[in-house]
Amino acid sequence: MTERVLAIVVCFNPKIEALDFALRAIAAQVDQAVVVDNASDNRQDVVELVAKQIDGAPVSVLPQSKNTGLGTAHNTGIRYAEQHGFSHVLLLDQDSVPLSNMVAELLEALRAKSAESVCAVGASYLNADNGAESFFVRLGWLKFRRQYCGARDNDGCIEADFLISSGSLISLESIKAVGYMDEGLFIDHIDTEWFLRARSKGFTAYGVCDAVMQHGLGEQTHRLTLRRQRNIPQHKPFRYYYIFRNSVALYRRSYTSWKWKWNDVQRLALIALMFGVWKKPRRENLKMMWHGVVDGFRGISGAMRTPKS
To answer: What pTM was computed for the model?
Structure first.
């Protein structure tokens, strides 16, 4: 089958200049790009930007009538790819900027791993806030193990237990075998859930060191030293609702490993300590975290419902 890559760029109230820069970078590397707009307040600006015919591959807009979340947006793009004969999709956030040759490196990595059951390969990234190098994640019995590119194999890849969605190249054959993204999670853990599900079906994933993009992690990034330096993104309070709710939701699923659950509990404890005790707005952050935990146990999915005071 001929390799044809569709880039799926999900946006919500994007900065138009930044989106323009990102689309120009990706249009030079793929066969087509679609912008799935999740009912942005500035949608008309997005439509007008794409109408300017960005140099490179064709770019079009798939407007959504309301913001139904990241998982639905990804699936909208994936179904477009299925209907139009693409072999692969490249998932991207609105603030992710691929550096030159990123897609070619991802495709080459997939070819090199063709003898394995690989569901996806993902780009490494430079933090757009501070230029810090990314890492890929393996699950350890005590904590997440960070795998930096010094640990790459002969193909320039690092096996990862899961990848962030932005910068992930996924074949439609893998999506057919694993299934679509979980739309009920709305925002957070959509990538984690899909890769945990894929691994439970016997698939592996790899990070590709020579495929690089710039990527923003949060509204602000804090550097914390606990035996080693780590960069911890800070989000707006509502995001902690989804982070905690969706973690609890995944703890209850049969295909999520105990190793991942233990690692994630530690991660949530650090988030609660840092943003519920140390960093403002502490009270609002804690309220959202608790609301998320309660809704996770109640099995509530989709967009957040306003908590009672």
So the answer is: 0.93
